[in-house]
C-alpha cells in the first residue's frame, strides 16, 4: 500500500484499455435537458444497440432521439449522404417539429469522413431548422465528454453581444434585454426599475426583482444540470449578490444565453474542457477557473472563486458550509477512515475523490479517462490542499487506465470501496469487494450544498447494505475466490 | 439510411461474443473503439455474472485510424494469452473494423505463432448478418476449427458411445431462459435413457469439441443458433440431428418421436409412447389445463404472437392447437428465416407478419386489438401503452427475464410454465365476465389507442364519459366506428350525441 501512495500528486498514463460508456450516451440526458431538441445519432446498429440497452426504459417513452442507421449503401457511398439525411430530417420535422436537430457524429462517420459540418448549414437553410453537429465518437472521447462536444458546438449558436461597447444607460440595450428577458445580463437595480416601469410589472415581481445584485459583468454558467439543480446554484450565487445571466445549455434551445466579449463563464462539471476552450477562444468570454461545485467544500470554493473574480467578499459561506457538514455527520462517520479506489470512467473522479478525502476517506487511486490539467487546475490544487489538510498521502492519478492492471491492484489493496463501471461491479462484489456503480454519479443530483447528501447516499449505500447483511458469511461468492 | 428507434436483433459482434464467452476459458478480443465493450455490462447485469466477462477490446482510436492497428492487435492477443492462458482467443471484428478493412486475418496468423492459445478471427460481416446469424456462424466456425485440428492430430473420437447419447447445441449466454431449458432438456434426455455427450457452447470447453463426434445425434433446441453446426456435423460425420423444438405438449412428443426414430436406425429400439402418455397426462398439467373449464373461457379469444422464429412459431402452435385461442397474427423479426416461419404457422393463425420494425408491430397490434400479446419486451411496452396484457416469450429481454427460479420453456415442465404464462396474461375469466356485466370498473380516460398520431379528432368530456361506460371488450370497436363516422362527416369534436349518431348510422 505504501508504495502506491506518494507525497506529491503523481500522474500516470496506462494503456487506455478500460471500460466506459460511449460518448453518444450524452443524448440520454441532453434530450431531456433541452426540451425542444431532437438528437439524431448518425451511426450503425452498434451505436443503436448501445443506446437501446444502456438507456433501458427511456427508449419506450417516445424519446426525442433516434438513429440514422447507416447501411451498406451508405458506407460504400452508393447512396448520397445529403439526400439521405435530408429525407430523415424532413421526417423528423414533420413528426416532432423540434427547434433544433443535433447530429451526433460517430466512429463510422469519422472513418468514412462524412462531412456533417459541411452538410449541416446547407440542410439547415433548406428545411429551416437549426442543425448543430457534435462529433461525440468513441475514437476520440469517453462517456461524459460527449456532452462537452455538444455544448462546444452549441456555444457557436448562442446569440452574440459585445458588451465592451455598451453602457448601462443605453436604451436599445434595454429593449434587447427585455426580449431575452431573464438571461440578459446587466440587470442592475436601476435597469430593473426602468424595465418594470416599461412593462407595468405588478409590485410583487418588482419587490422580488429588486434583489441587491452587485453591478458585475454578466456571468454565464456552462454544463447540463437538472433544472432544480440550476435553480439551487442560481440561488446560491444570488445570496452573494451575483446574478447568473444564463446557462449553456438552457432548458430550451431558443433560450440559449447571450455570449460575447466581456461575458464571464464558469463550468460546473470537470469534463467540459472543449466547451471552455470554445467559449474563450471563439466567443471571447473570460473563463473563471474554479474547483467544481461538488460537495460542500467544492461548492464553497466555487462560489468564493466567482466572488473573487468580481471583487465581492462572500457572505456567510463558512457558516453555510459548516451547517452542511453537520447535516452529513451520520454518513461521514460511516466512511471515515475507509479506503476507496476509482477505476475511472466519467471524469468526475477528481472532484469526487477530493470531496471523499475531506470526508475522511483514503483514496488509493483516481483513474480518469482524460485529464485536462489546465481546465482542472483549481480542482487539482484543492485536491492537493485537502490531502495536506487531512494529513493523508496524495493519491495517484491514472489517466487512460488499464482495467486489467487495476483489478490486480484492487486485489492487492483490498479497498473498502471500488467505484467502477457495471462491467466490473458484479464480479468484484462476488470477490468480496464492495462497489458503487460510477454511472450513478452522472445521473444523480450531486452539485451544490443541497445535494452533498445525495453523493454520500450513493457512496455509503454499499457500506450500509453490507452492514445489514453482516454476519451471514457470504462475502466471497466465487468458486475459486481470489483474495 | 434508416430512421431507427429500436431493434430486435443486435449487431453481429454481439452474437460472436455471446458464443465465445459461453465457452469456458475462451477469450474474445474486439477490434473496436472505446465504449463498444457494452457487452460486458449486459452480461454482468442481465445474467448477474459473478466472473469477469472474458471480453476485452483492442481499442481503435485516432492513432489507429492514422497508422493502422499494426502491432496493437497482435500485442493485445499475446498479452491476453499470457495473462489469462485461455484455450482460445477469438478476434472479433465490429462495424468499425468492417470499414477499416485491415487485414485482421494476418494479425491472427502472426499472433497464433507467438501464443500458446489458439487464435481465430470470427468470420462475420457487420453489414450482412445480425446477432443471431453471427452467433450461429461463430459456433460453427469454432467447432469446425477444433474438429479439423483434432483430425490433423488424429485425436478425433469417431467411435460412438456405447449407450445412446446426444449433444445439445445452441444453449448460450444472454439467451432467453436458456439455462433453465438446458436443465430441462438434460432431464428429458435422461428420462429417455439418452446420455448427454456435450452441451455447447454454454459451459463447454473447446478442448472437448473433438468428442462431439461420439454422439449418436445432435439436438438443436433453437433454430436461430446451432443449425449450421448441426449441418456441418451431419455432412462430415453423418450425425443426424433433431430440430423440432420441444416446446408445448404436441411438439415435445414430436421431438421425442424423432429421437426414437434416430435411435431405431442405430438398432436401439425403444418405444417412448407410454412415457409420452404418462408425462402428457399426469406430469405436465398443460393437457389437463386445456380441458379444464378455466381454459374454456379462453376459447376464441384473440391473441397476437411476435418474437424470434423458434419461440413465436412454437407459441403460435401452442395457443392455436393446444388451447383453442385464436391467433390473429403471428410474426417474427428473423427475416432471414421467414419461409420456415410461414410454413410452421400456416393454418394456425389468420395472418403472418415478417418485420424488424417495431412500429409496424405496434400498428398491427393496435389494429387487431387482441386480448393478449405474446412477444418480446418491446411488445410488452406496446401492450402497456394500449392497455393489453403481454406475456414475454422471446428475446430481446430485460433483467426480469433472467429469473432466479426454475422457469424453462422447453420440455414438460416448460408446458406448465407456458400454461401459467398464458392464463395469467389473459384477464381472468370470471373477472372479465363481471366487467362486461357491470360495464367495467376502470375510470381511466381513453384518449387514443393507436400508435400513429394521424388523428385530429377530439373527444369531448361527455363523449369520453359515455365511451367509458361501454364494456371494455367492445370499447375499441365502438370508438373506431365513431371516429370513422366523425371523419366521414367532417366532425372534429366527438360528443355523446355524435357517438349515438354514429351508432345509429352503422346500426351497431
Automatic annotation (TrEMBL), chain A:
Organism superkingdom: Eukaryota
Cofactor field: [4Fe-4S] cluster
Reactions accelerated catalytically: chlorophyllide a + oxidized 2[4Fe-4S]-[ferredoxin] + 2 ADP + 2 phosphate = protochlorophyllide a + reduced 2[4Fe-4S]-[ferredoxin] + 2 ATP + 2 H2O
Keywords tagged on the record: 4Fe-4S, ATP-binding, Chlorophyll biosynthesis, Chloroplast, Iron, Iron-sulfur, Metal-binding, Nucleotide-binding, Oxidoreductase, Photosynthesis, Plastid
Enzyme nomenclature, EC number: 1.3.7.7
Pathway: Porphyrin-containing compound metabolism; chlorophyll biosynthesis (light-independent)
GO-annotated cellular components: chloroplast
Every Nitrogenase/oxidoreductase component domain range: 22-461
Cofactor comment: Binds 1 [4Fe-4S] cluster per heterodimer. The cluster is bound at the heterodimer interface by residues from both subunits.
Family: Belongs to the BchN/ChlN family.
Biological function: Component of the dark-operative protochlorophyllide reductase (DPOR) that uses Mg-ATP and reduced ferredoxin to reduce ring D of protochlorophyllide (Pchlide) to form chlorophyllide a (Chlide). This reaction is light-independent. The NB-protein (ChlN-ChlB) is the catalytic component of the complex.
Assembly and oligomerization: Protochlorophyllide reductase is composed of three subunits; ChlL, ChlN and ChlB. Forms a heterotetramer of two ChlB and two ChlN subunits.
Annotated protein name in UniProt: Light-independent protochlorophyllide reductase subunit N
Gene source species: Koliella longiseta
Species classification: Eukaryota, Viridiplantae, Chlorophyta, core chlorophytes, Trebouxiophyceae
Automatic annotation (TrEMBL), chain B:
Protein family membership: Belongs to the ChlB/BchB/BchZ family.
Major localization class: plastid
Transmembrane segments: none
Keyword Transferase: no
UniProtKB keywords: 4Fe-4S, ATP-binding, Chlorophyll biosynthesis, Chloroplast, Iron, Iron-sulfur, Metal-binding, Nucleotide-binding, Oxidoreductase, Photosynthesis, Plastid
UniProt keyword Metal-binding present: yes
EC class of the enzyme, as a word: oxidoreductase
Reaction catalysis annotation: chlorophyllide a + oxidized 2[4Fe-4S]-[ferredoxin] + 2 ADP + 2 phosphate = protochlorophyllide a + reduced 2[4Fe-4S]-[ferredoxin] + 2 ATP + 2 H2O
Annotated source species: Koliella longiseta
Name this polypeptide is given: Light-independent protochlorophyllide reductase subunit B
Cofactor needs: [4Fe-4S] cluster
InterPro entries: ChlB/BchB/BchZ (IPR050152), LI-POR_suB-like_C (IPR013580), Nase/OxRdtase_comp1 (IPR000510), P-CP_red_C (IPR042298), Protochl_reductB (IPR005969), Protochlorophyllide_Rdtase (IPR016209)
Domain of life: Eukaryota
Binding site for substrate: 429-430
UniProt EC number: 1.3.7.7
Pathway named in the protein's UniProt entry: Porphyrin-containing compound metabolism; chlorophyll biosynthesis (light-independent)
